[in-house]
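# nightly structure sweep
# worker-07 picked up a monomer target from the shared queue
# config: single-sequence mode, recycle default, output format = C-alpha cells
# input follows
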Amino acid sequence: MDDVQPFLYNLFADPDIIRLPPPVQFLQGFLANALSASRAPKSREAYESIGGGSPLRRITEDQANALQAAMQARGIQAKTYVGMRYWKPFTEDAIEAIKRDGVTRLVVLPLYPQFSISTSGSSLRLLEQYFAEDEELASVRHTVIPSWYQRPGYVKAMAVMIAQTLKTKFEDDKEPLIFFSAHGVPVSYVEQAGDPYKDEMEACVRLITEELGSMGVNNEHVLAYQSRVGPVEWLKPYTDDTIRELGKKGTEALCAVPISFVSEHIETLEEIDMEYRELAEESGIKKWGRVPALDTDPLFIDDLADAVIEALPYTTRMSKTRASASGLNVPPAEVGELLASYDRAKLAIPVPDSSLRTTSSTKRADQFNGSSGDLVNVAIVVFFVFVFLQYVAGANGLFGQFGVFSNW
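# output follows
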C-alpha cells in the first residue's frame, strides 16, 4: 500500500498522461504531487479490494520467464528483462541489467497489443533518451516491435479464450453478447495528435470476431471503452453507458472481454469484475461472464516468441529496414527511427519528465478525477494554477491554452 502514492506521482508526472501546453509545463511536478495525494486514499481502497496489491508485476515476470523458455525451446538462448514505466522494476533497472550482462542485440517488446502515444509511445520515448545519453547502451543493436494486435497467434489465443468462456460460463453459449471493453484515450489524442489506437483496436476486434466465426462462434459483439478520466470526450461508446443501454434493450447475457489488457490487474479484477458486473446486474443483465486475461497462455506466449524471432534480423545493421513515413503501420525499427516515423506522421509524443528516473494505482483509472466528488479537488487545483498564471503572465488568451486540464 505504501507504493500507491509514489506510483501515482510517476503516472501523473508523465507528459503523455497529462499533456500540459509548453508555457505551463513547469507545473507538471506540482500537479502530479497534488493529484497523487488526493487520489491515493481511493486507490488504496481499490487495491485492498483485490487482495492488497496488484498481481501485474508477478504476472509480467511470469510472462517474461515463459517467453524466455519458449525462445530456448526454439534453440535461441535469449534472456528476458522486465522494465516498467511507473514503478519497480523501472525501465532504467532493466537497462542496467542489460548492460551488466553484456547484451549486444536487443528486441524491445511492449506488452500493449495496440500502439498508443500514452502507453507504448511514452515508454519508447523514455527509452530513446537512454539510448541517446548512454554511449554503452547506444552500441547495442536493437529493434522495436511497435504493436502486434494483428498477429495470428494472439488473435487465435483471444478467440479460443472467448469461446471457452462462452461454453463454461453460460448454459447457452449462443445467447451472450460478446462485450469487448478496451482502455480508452481522449478523442483529442486520436483527432489532434494522430494516435492510431482507435484504428488498431477496431481492426483487432474485427480480426478476433472473424477468427471466432471460423470456429462457428457468431454471437453479436460490441466494442466500448472504459476508464475515462474527467469531463472531456474520450473514445466512445463508453463501457458504463453501453452496459446501461444494453440493459434497456433487453440484453440478458454479456460475455466481457478485456481486449486491451494481457494481464490481470486493477482494471480487470476491480473495475470489470466488480464495478461493471454490479452495473450490469443493476441494468437488468442477468447473466455475466468475463474472459480471463491471457497471462501466460501457451498459444499467446508462443506467438510472442515467434514475433521476437521475426524481429531479430532487424537488430543487424546490414538488414535494417527503415520504417515507413506513415508511422501507422511500421515494421520493426530502432527506437529513434520508429519515433521519428511517428513524429513525421504528426503523432505528437512529448519527451518524458526526467524526474521519473529518480522518483521512487487506483479505484480504477477514471476515479483519478472521474467521479463527481473528485472533480472538486481537481477544479481547486486548476483554479489555483490559473490564478497563479494570471498573476505571473496576465490572462489575455491564456485560458484558451488550458484545454489540457479538461482531460483531467
